[in-house]
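Q: What structure does this chain adopt?
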Amino acid sequence: MPFVWSFGSILGPFIGGALAEPCVTYPSLFARGTVFDRYPFLLPNVVCAMILMLGILVGILFLEETHQEKKYRRDIGLEIGRRLLGFFDRKGRRNPPIKCIDANLEESRSLLEDEPPPGYRTTEGSPRYPSSRSLSPAAPPYSRSEARITWARKAPTVGMQKAFTRPVIVHIVGFGILA
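A:
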């Protein structure tokens, strides 16, 4: 995020300055008496709006949902994006439609199925696993449905007092001064 913010802080004024007053800066491309002469800052705003619309379009057509409760729903935007990619594919292959079955269900599998690595033998404080395997050898592993229920629980909300700490406020003020 800081890289993108810094890059945009440099590129944005460059685009705005290069495209401002196009009838004066580029008289061979933009004639006097046109809409660009009447509104000299229209071109940089139109270009920035087109870049924004391109970003929104790419997000709708190609980004997959990551929200735990919504990631397995049908995504029409992603289906349209895959069809567009299939249309422009040189080999003419069609991508299969997205189904809930195609989703990666490995996220709900426990990472501690086997013996943990040598440096991490203890699981003290863990509600699922005892600190020693000998204490409860017959403890059954959790099923996928139980893991989904655990993942579906919402995290506790954090109050405004805890979210806006002193470093966060300093960063917001700093970005506000620089912007």
